[in-house]
Amino acid sequence: MNAPVVIVGTGLAGYNLAREFRKLDSETPLLLITSDDGRSYSKPMLSTGFGKNKEADGLSMATPEAMAEQLKAQVRTHTRISGIDPGHKQLWIGEEAVPYRDLVLAWGAQTVQVPVEGDAQDAIFPINDLEDYARFRAAAAGKRRVLILGAGLIGCEFANDLIAGGYEVDVVAPCEQVMPTLLHPAAAAAVQAGLESLGARFHLGPVLTRLQRTENGLEAHLSDGSVVPCDVVLSAIGLRPRIDMAAAAGIKVNRGIEVDRQLKTSHANIYALGDCAEVDGLNLLYVMPLMSCARALAQTLAGNTTAVSYGAMPITVKTSVCPLVVSPVPRGCEGVWTVEGQGADIKALCRDADGKLLGYALTGEAVREKLALNKELPALLA
Ligand SMILES: Cc1cc2nc3c(=O)[nH]c(=O)nc-3n(C[C@H](O)[C@H](O)[C@H](O)COP(=O)(O)OP(=O)(O)OC[C@H]3O[C@@H](n4cnc5c(N)ncnc54)[C@H](O)[C@@H]3O)c2cc1C
């Protein structure tokens, strides 16, 4: 039998690539391998699940068996790749060698862990997949107070969602504003004020140093000496693209697995997309870029070599109390910010010396202007 196209990972990158590929090629053997349970789900829904009172099962859209049938593919679940041997075009699952015609790495990013003292480290839960979500829901069931580590996009979305789900929320992050790498301070202030109006308490500046069990739950000791009582901790302090196994196989890595515009790594017949990939220097951990990559790579795997391009890719943040759309300024671009509006309705625009729009952050009512502004935005990979 011909060696299959092998996709490692059944997240949005892996399954969408398989779907796009099958539109073009219904015959080539296709094998998907995943270390998780292989259910198809939309990861962005994880940070709206409490408000909608959805269990993990309610967020799952298809079983791996249904996906295998739909994709005319084999889906191997709870199966962890342990190594890649590019010289022999095979990968390793423990002692088992699996040959590939083409190998696609769609194995995502992993959660960052912080060292914390105390006897309650097991009460800290990261959420980066459906199984994490199920574990956190079980831990939070019947509890009242959630401490969120991290005030980035994910931390703020969970703050909004957990409050909508009936929890009290404290947010701890070592930064001066929410979403510091993404947002102009005026927009950040609007989002923070919105979340505070729901009851969220922000502790910006310190980090969690110790988590201790007490008679009434947990005590979170922060580096500024303050103590925050809580019942469970959700960690949203960031994600790191999975690169170690690729690097061990001699594949070039930087922040992510380096690929060119055709999604090719430094090794023949090995490709990458999604959260693990750095595409022409850009490692964007969002859905829109991976969808563009899936369409382009499907063409290449079907024999029609295709380069990916990214248009403007504004991000809609799911802080419903203060709607937010942001289009970060592309790397290497310098501009000047202007801010209009006040309170919850902020329009922050960044323009270059010629007046060309480079990026924006829109909150509240100003979000309505996004369609008009999107037309002015530069493409991220033209
Ligand atoms: C809570 C949350 C909310 C988000 N909301 C938004 C949003 O609103 N909009 C947006 O654009 N983006 C959002 N994102 C980001 C977006 O969801 C991700 O960019 C995207 O889902 C990444 O998909 P992926 O397939 O690359 O990775 P993943 O979904 O992480 O999939 C990785 C796959 O690889 C498998 N795997 C890993 N290692 C191995 C191994 N060694 N062997 C075998 N299999 C392995 C895993 O089991 C998994 O199947 C959100 C992210 C989170 C966490």
UniProtKB/TrEMBL annotation:
Judging by the UniProt lineage, the source's domain of life is Bacteria
A GO cellular component annotation here is: cytoplasm
Q: Which UniProt keywords apply?
A: Cytoplasm, FAD, Flavoprotein, NAD, Oxidoreductase
Domain Rubredoxin binding spans what residues? Answer: 307-377
List the GO molecular function terms. oxidoreductase activity
Q: Where in the cell is it found?
A: Cytoplasm
Chief localization: cytoplasm
Q: Which cofactor does it need?
A: FAD
Q: Which InterPro entries match?
A: FAD-bd_OxRdtase, FAD/NAD-bd_sf, FAD/NAD-binding_dom, Rbx-bd
Q: Where is the signal peptide?
A: none
Family of this protein: Belongs to the FAD-dependent oxidoreductase family.
Record's protein name: FAD-dependent oxidoreductase
Which species is the source of this protein? Pseudomonas fragi
